[in-house]
Amino acid sequence: MSGKSNVRRIVAGIMTIMVLSDGVAFGWSEIGHRAMASLAYALLDPQTRSVTADLLRQHPRFADDFAAMMPEEMRSADRAVQDEWIFQQAAVWPDIARRLPGNEDEGPQAEFSRPTWHYINQPLYLTDSDRTSLENHLPANLSRDVPADAAALREMNVVQAIRHCETVVGDPSRADAERAVHLAWLFHLVGDVHQPMHSTALFSVDRFPEGDKGGNLIRTRQNDNLHAVWDRFPGGEGERRVGTFADFAAARGMATGLLAGLPNEEANDDRDGDVETWLSESRELAENAAYTSEVLAFVRSLPPAPGEATPRLVLSEEYLEYGRKASARRLNAAGARLAKLLGRL
Fold first, then answer.
1. CA pair distance 97, 337, nearest whole angstrom
2. How far is CA 325 from CA 49, 123, 342, in A?
3. Closest by alpha carbon to 205, among 131, 301, 137?
4. Per mean pLDDT, which of 17-26, 77-86, 244-253 is the most reliable?
5. pTM greater than the 0.70 cutoff
6. Domain boundaries, the chain
7. Cα separation of 8 and 3, whole Å?
8. Which of 21, 12, 18, 1 is nearest to 262 (CA)?
9. pLDDT tens-digit series, residues 183-228
10. 3-class SS at 152?
11. Does 3-344 carry CATH code 1.10.575.10?
């Protein structure tokens, strides 16, 4: 099947497509995940799409977090369009789970939200001295193996979580509801592991002894902090719409632009199923494109224990332009790889 012609066929006649451009003010954190899901949907054969959406309909939160949130315009759409929206909603559901009632100890939030599953804090050291002081006792889970202890499953990093979710989804002896929850997580985590700021944290004895939380503690003029800057690539700055029919259309259009305009070499080789490779690519991008010399020089200029009163970094337009293009390539890779993963499962 031709991916490009398939996407055009799906989109034609339903809405005016919003294509990927610098002027689209949506973020990777929400619209980006939805676009990745639509890209995967476009690349799958009809049977795999249908089987995947049917399993997601067995999600124990489907009535509240899927059906009740479906845009009104979508309710009268045909089954295929609804299935694509369900793909999109699955890709953002783990972030919805963060806002469910309760807290980390009780209620739906405790049952479904797993904050540590979204990232892994592979260390990048500000100086050689920081490396010497910190590398043997980092407060970070860097394991790649899925823990045997049930309680430890709640504290997994993104690599462990992807491997765990693949096992659960691929096991037909598990309850459909359990498989559906882990399938939604798999949609989301494949996107997260392709985001460079979910792969790495900057460590410094004086400034970030426990890491900078993937750039969250580096304040920037654009989009508040370095992590948010990357979350909101590709696109631009500004208000984001989430959960509307226009949101669905924008994500769909972004997926079309990715597929048509960005040939993805990484997702067409023999490393497609290797989460370690995906992580390694994100790590390389974090070192070379996210934590650039301009960013590290700014951090070195900060006083020890930087806080809310510290200056904000103004990122160069060259930095931002490269970030937009690099993030679009990562979304493209994530969508293609998610499709192949779903096909195998």
1. 24
2. 29, 25, 26
3. 131
4. 77-86
5. yes
6. 3-344
7. 9
8. 21
9. 999 999 999 999 999 999 999 999 999 999 999 999 999 999 999 9
10. helix
11. yes
